[in-house]
Amino acid sequence: MWLVIAAILSADFNRFEKNVTDQGRYKIRMQEKEGFVDASGRTVIAPQFRLCTRFSEGLACCWDGPKAGFIDRKGQIAIPFHFEGCGEFSEGLAPVRRGGKWGFVSADGLIRIEPAYDNTRGFYNGLAVVKVGGKYGFCDKKGDLVVSPRFEFASGFSEGLSAVLVAGQCGYVDKHGQMAFPAQFDDCLDFAEGLACVCNKGRCGYIDRHGRFALPLKYGWSGDFSEGLAAVGASFGGSGFIDRSGKVVITPRFRNAWYFRGGLAAVERQGKNGLKYGFINQRGTVAIPFIFDMAYPFVGELAYVALNGRSAYINRKGIVVWQSPSP
What we know:
Elements: H1 2-9, H2 11-19, E1 26-30, E2 33-37, E3 43-49, E4 51-52, E5 60-64, E6 67-71, E7 77-83, E8 85-86, E9 93-98, E10 101-106, E11 111-117, E12 119-124, E13 127-132, E14 135-139, E15 145-151, E16 153-158, E17 161-166, E18 169-173, E19 179-185, E20 187-192, E21 195-200, E22 203-207, E23 213-219, E24 221-226, E25 229-233, E26 239-242, E27 248-254, E28 256-257, E29 265-271, E30 274-280, E31 286-292, E32 294-295, E33 303-307, E34 310-314, E35 320-323
Antiparallel strand pairs: 1-2, 2-3, 4-5, 5-6, 6-7, 8-9, 9-10, 10-11, 12-13, 13-14, 14-15, 16-17, 17-18, 18-19, 20-21, 21-22, 22-23, 24-25, 25-26, 26-27, 28-29, 29-30, 30-31, 32-33, 33-34, 34-35
């Protein structure tokens, strides 16, 4: 049950990460303020905001004191700071909070959907998850509820289906709110490259969009497919990668593994200096050495890492282009 909650909570991150371009801006934090650098590591927006989201569709949501608004890639205010909260743009709209409720704004700063929802998760495939009275449903870009709020949780649409929680079980609904197949899994992830990870009784596998098992429930854990491969935890220990047929492409020998982005994946293994992250290519060959305390997938040209207790960005050659000052 914990995995389904974590999976749904991280669904926006996963879905956004796999489709976002770098927008030429990467968030940094210095002295409790946030700003942005470009792909060379040069500061292009000085740290001055309390918090910021990533850039999406040319804009980033930032907080200046208690109020939030949007800036452009030059750091200029694009939408005034008069919201209680805001999120990333997706499909032309971004969630904003006003009067304790959430609605949506367009890039020109106009409210397109009046704040009326308790929470929302942004637009994907033309619909947005919204929370009303403790239940989750979906609205369209007019703000009309097209799927009534009746689910315990919902992740948002990916490849035409959304993972939902019904009576403690995970299943999938279509854009009409109809169950595509019965909610019968303990845990599940979004569809990616035609398959979705599902789990029952501590074992995970993959189903297709018809609810048929493409790969049986035999993995200790498994992640989304990306660039034809998925990270899985073998029942005998260790994490590796499989292809869509279930063939082991990279043998399970890592403690942790992210998905592939641009031919590289961040993985963790035990070494002489303890647990460290590095990056491998799709042949399983080390592309960037295992020297990082933490590492995340590449977004555009850079990947966010932790090195010697400091935040940093590296390029695809493993060169540090920016690193936070020493504590």
